[in-house]
Amino acid sequence: MGPVGAFCSQAEYLCNYHRTGCPGETGAHGPGSDVRRRLRKLASPPHVRVLRFAVGHVAAHARAHIRAGQNIRRVTVLGKRGPGGRLINGSDQHVSGKPRLLHLVHTPRHSGAETLVRELCIIHQARGIDTAITSFSPSDPDFLLSIAHLQTAGVQLFLPERTLAGVDRIRAFRRVYRDFRPQLVYGHSVLPSLYGRLALPLFGNQPRFVSVLHSATNDDYEEANLWGAELLLARRNHRVFAVSEEGASNYRKRIPYAPQVDVVPNGTNIGGIREAAARRDVIRGAFNLQPHTRIILQVGRISSTKQQLHALEALTPLLKERNQIKLWFAGLIQDESYAQAIRAKIAESDLAEQVAMLGSREDIPDLLSAADLYIMPSLMEAHSVAMIEALASGIAVAASDIPTLRFSSTYKGVILHPAADKHAMAKAAEALLVNQKRFARNLAEFDISVTADKYASGLSKIAARS
């Protein structure tokens, strides 16, 4: 493995470790001592590391130019292929005079960053901006309906047939840069941002690049490897977007020469969620819910940081006492062992008739409309799209009292409780279920159209200079 490949492998490894807290969950890695060994290996003199990285970077660029013709065999383009395998997607849009905006994501799926990108692309495409998405991995099967919506809207999609790794990611991104010719690129989360900047051409015209910080820890470059890579690549950013003030502050502390860092909170389709809320009776009927049935809903990836098992344990007494209450968990499974623990607890508690794991869902607005209480017992969040959606629906909310969710406490019908306190969570849930009213909340600042304006602002600056 070459220098760039080694960097990519190390960065990926530590990013997965940072996200899951367990190296064993990312593949055939050893226990925590393996991380320490890798970090010691990186502790060579800084000038040596920088030199090695620079040489590897140049070598990767050279190899990618030589093997550029192979990229298209690794990248599946959803749409028609034109000469040379270029994406047409119904019309050769990317050679038009329209502004062009590209989003880089890890995997198209029902998660905060990817859901945000989907909504941004649909809005920007409707506004006359050519938009495209590319990724490291094929779409999650549960996201295919969203893929169809994106294609119908005219969004161009460059998605691989298989999950790419290492230098293959750089080659694939470079091919997309050449084919789509974006003026502005957004790299969402750590790895797409790092690889996206490695793929930028060394010479000639470059698109403006904006890194978007999405980490739930609000400290995207906490790990030593990732921080070292960002120190080298930070100057390839034109701007940095953070979804929270804490994320922006941590980035500025770690990267002293950081470019402009703006706080751009996540947004969502407020109007669509409220339309679903207005059809509550119809939607509850479609779910075959009786008038007396009460639904407690949690939306989020099935993982220990989201604390679904904690919620189940906290609410078990209430569920056993009142069998008309049901608990729904909606979200893709990030940690299968954690999901198994939840299933085992459901069986042990004899709650199979009241607790359901719904998996990844396209119909979150309908679920919120049908539900009576939304819970978010997370240990950590960035700027949660799921919380904004819940607030927009008017549903009562019980959530963890963590910094990035405290903004919700200013709205009616919201109770925050200590993240680790099961009794406090159960008490909040019981209190909110007594009152079945929905709450009117002003969430105009979180409407996706406002967020879309901020993401398109870089194109306005490009047009002003040209």
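^ that was protein a. below is b, sequence first then the tokens
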Amino acid sequence: MKKTILILLMLMICIMITSCNSDTELLKTSEKEIATTNLTEATSQNDKTELKDYLELIDGSTFIHEYKINNDSVSILYSVKSIESKENLTKKDFDDYFLTGDKIDKILVSVPLRLFNNYSYLKTIEIKIEADKNYNINLNKDDVIKLIGEINKENIDKYTYDKNLRKEFLNNFE
């Protein structure tokens, strides 16, 4: 009888030790998952902050009325409404900027290409310009790559500044 009690006691001690080790491993795993999640969230927040800063510098940024950043997508609206909060700008400034030359077409091509190039995690970009009429382009990165090949400075410049390539690009995504 004493042997049985002793064996049972030893078995219970083994089970308790194993259980404690298992809990410790679960705790370590949970801590790793939390750390990974926090790192991902911090990276995501840093990416968004960096992207917001970049949007302040892109072509026509003065006339950006609003933008939205959602995980892997960006939406930008250029509008005359953007001048409402700026004392030194007029509708004439807006019209002079957008309605001179091929500025609208250049923005619809260059801005998303530069964003895709600089922020590899972006998958979709939408640009809207409310000028003499509404202009809109909604791009999926994979579709852009199919058309132009690699998104790099050389291809960005080619499609931005060569009028024929710019028209080809816009015709493919209208």
